[in-house]
Amino acid sequence: MTTYAVGDIQGCLKPLQCLLDEVGFNPSCDVLWAVGDLVNRGPDSLNTLRFIDNLDNACIAVLGNHDLHLLATSRDASRLRKSDTLLPILQADDRDRLLANLRQRPLAHWDARLGILMTHAGLPPIWSVKQTRKRAAEVEEVLRCDERLPLFLDEMYGNEPDRWKPSLTGIARLRCITNYLTRMRFCKQDGTLDLKSKEGVGSAPKGFAPWFTYPRRDPTTQVVFGHWAALEANTGVPGIHALDSGCVWGNSMTLMNMDTGERHQCHCGEPT
Ligand SMILES: [Mn+2]
Fold it and tell me: Model pTM?
């Protein structure tokens, strides 16, 4: 049994299948982790979602900001933006099943055997792994609750509050947790988020730094994450594994063997 992790797929099904073929992925004994943003911007989000669902227990995917955006557009299609490529999912015969399965997925996945935490954006330096899992579970509970989901989807957008406080309540608390786990890139030592800058580590606003450059609460814990294509799948920090290599932007997709650390890249999605 081998555990693999793949970066942001964003509807790029062909490179994903190419990588799985390359390593001889066997769903009856191997496991694929996906760091979230399964869908959007890329060419085939609908079949990507079907493919991931069909892997069943052989795939563990955490939710990214684009996956949450899909859930929000399914409630109100006027939220679709010009650059979104989500319409085929919303119009598919099996949309209800696909969206119901997506809602069940976690925001954080912890593997005690490997000592690795996976979230879409990373591990907030102000939180321990235990706190991160607990706070992720607060949002997961709402995603799975028919009564509470609509309000969350209506109110989840926004950059405020930009700093975690344990005293936060209600929708502000849920939005803040969601932003840390699905949108974080740069933050301050006290956890204050900057959610506007998207470029590489050199583009940090004054007083901010990439989240992974701060000492972490659990130094022996490894982290695997995506979301930040400008890092080109490299943080320079041992044990902090960035996997988004910007496949959807015409670059390669990255698959990592989490047991050996070996990385594979597929260039078949690149324009020829
Ligand atoms: Mn993302």
Answer: 0.97
